[in-house]
Design brief:
By secondary structure, the protein is mainly alpha-helical. It contains 5 helices and no strands. The chain is 82% helix and 0% strand.
């Protein structure tokens, strides 16, 4: 097993999840200032994981096909669940930490698969 590759994917997946969650909350707050989220605004907000994945792909050279599911799954499970259940007065760092933990959890299968695959 390639241990360094596993650790790299786990760290980058965690960081990508943190950035995805943070940017999504920031964009969501900007787009919902009028207390109305239109369909095009939802499309912009849901494109955040793609932009984060492209930025990470360009800077770190980790495979695009690994980062894209991690960012979208992080957006889906911890981030959107917390956004829908929140009162609106939660601190910003709370969503960042949820994204960090979500990215770590979702990157575990990809890291193990990648580490076992390259022998």
């Amino acid at each position: 097993m390639n241990g360094w590759k596993v650790i790299k994917i786990l760290l980058l997946g965690s960081f990508a999840g943190c950035i995805t969650s943070s940017v999504f909350i920031f964009v969501n707050n900007i787009l919902t200032k009028d207390s109305n989220l239109d369909l095009w605004e939802l499309g912009v907000a849901l494109s955040v994981p793609v932009l984060v994945t492209v930025a990470f792909f360009i800077t770190t050279k980790v495979k695009f096909i690994i980062l894209l599911p991690i960012t979208y799954l992080t957006l889906l499970i911890p981030t959107l669940g917390a956004v829908f259940g929140s009162s609106g007065s939660e601190p910003f760092w709370q969503f960042s930490m949820l994204g960090l933990l979500g990215g770590l959890v979702w990157s575990i299968p990809f890291a193990l698969w990648s580490g076992l695959r390259t022998r």
